[in-house]
Amino acid sequence: MATPALMQNYGNRTLTLVRGEGNYVWDDAGRRYLDALSGIAVCGLGHCHPAVTEAIQDQAATLLHASNLYNLPPQEKLADKLVTLSGMDNVFFSNSGAEANEAAIKLARKLGNERGLAIPKIVVTEGAFHGRTLATLTATGNPKVQQGFAPLPEGFLRVPYNDAAAIEKLAAEHSDIVAILVEPVQGEGGIRIPDADYLPRLRALCDQHDWLLMLDEIQTANGRSGKLFAYQHYADLLPDVVTTAKGLGNGVPIGACLARGKAAELFTAGSHGSTFGGNPLACRAGIAVLETLENEWLIERAAKLGSDLVEQLKTELAGCAQVKEVRGLGLLVGIELDRPCAELVDMARAKDLLINVTSGNVVRLLPPLTLSDAECSQIATTVAALVRDFAAKAD
């Protein structure tokens, strides 16, 4: 089914999905697919998890919306849980990851304006993806995504990812920097995992220059990396601002910008807002997600499954010359090939498996945290065989 009533910004979509349950989705012909993409890291608990379904059904029959003019108990409960689990001080709720990052950018701008800077600068990285609003589009380090949308907002300085020395050099050249915005792992950029000392060096730079360290965890948070937030892999490292979305609602749109210290005091009454952000329905879903992650030990399971998946892929792809690297952190797994490999998406679909290719040549696997051991092994075996077939045909 396809209709011209939809804008064509998503291109030609050839698969119609009508139902999801657990780690599987079904198309309109009744065919079942193992979902190793999870709606691009959204459905971490799988599709239609009973705890989330029960929470949103109950809330839908109780109170859907009342506006942020009033106290909303689900919003307060979710904020309390996020603050407790993250080590941050407070939360701003939005509808999406882009809006959460937009809030982070506005925090940095607010700090810069309070310091009397005409155009405060935020350091961002090549290969980053922060969203598609004008500000987050500008922060995104992909010229193809920005193409056709000029003029873009000013106030961003771009450096290579995983290059703290480049930021040290910027610090010597620019006195108007107020923040660094960076992903702990680049997802859209190709599952790029930085060196172990990268984030600690950025934290030290921010402390030295009184900048904000702002981490975009839209894709990496909510247990996917093997910790609730990816920065929690580092002992004693706290950002000043961290954003999350995607898996927080398990399919219900919600985003959150968390802040601490001076960053937590920048927004005052009237300085920012969102009509639907933090509505009771989305917050009940978020509470159900966090409780399920904890009750079912899914964060620890993501760490184990991710490790198993990477190791099996490395074993099954050993000797495949076209594979440059298999890498991952938790259930963020990438297989980098030495050539474009978008056709692997259709090849996998023919094997009843949903995957994604990003950056042109990186197979991206983001399966649900509820994956069984057998399903994890099935993904590795199927993908490895497809990559070998693809490589053999390409040469």
Automatic annotation (TrEMBL):
The keyword Protein transport does not apply. The modification N6-(pyridoxal phosphate)lysine is found at residue 246. Its EC number is 2.6.1.11. Pfam families: Aminotran_3. Pyridoxal 5'-phosphate binds at residues 97-98, 129, 216-219, 275. It comes from the Bacteria. InterPro entries: AcOrn/SuccOrn_fam, Aminotrans_3, Aminotrans_3_PPA_site, Class-III_PLP-dep_AT, PyrdxlP-dep_Trfase, PyrdxlP-dep_Trfase_major, PyrdxlP-dep_Trfase_small. Binds 1 pyridoxal phosphate per subunit. Pathway: Amino-acid biosynthesis; L-arginine biosynthesis; N(2)-acetyl-L-ornithine from L-glutamate: step 4/4. It is found in: Cytoplasm. GO terms for cellular component: cytoplasm. It catalyses: N(2)-acetyl-L-ornithine + 2-oxoglutarate = N-acetyl-L-glutamate 5-semialdehyde + L-glutamate. GO terms for biological process: L-arginine biosynthetic process. GO terms for molecular function: identical protein binding; N2-acetyl-L-ornithine:2-oxoglutarate 5-aminotransferase activity; pyridoxal phosphate binding. CDD domains: OAT_like (cd00610). N(2)-acetyl-L-ornithine binds at residues 132, 274. Gene3D superfamilies: Aspartate Aminotransferase, domain 1, Type I PLP-dependent aspartate aminotransferase-like (Major domain). Its main location: cytoplasm. NCBIfam families: argD, PRK01278.1. May also have succinyldiaminopimelate aminotransferase activity, thus carrying out the corresponding step in lysine biosynthesis. Belongs to the class-III pyridoxal-phosphate-dependent aminotransferase family. ArgD subfamily. PANTHER family: ACETYLORNITHINE AMINOTRANSFERASE, MITOCHONDRIAL, AMINOTRANSFERASE CLASS III. Homodimer. This is Acetylornithine aminotransferase. It comes from Microbulbifer pacificus.
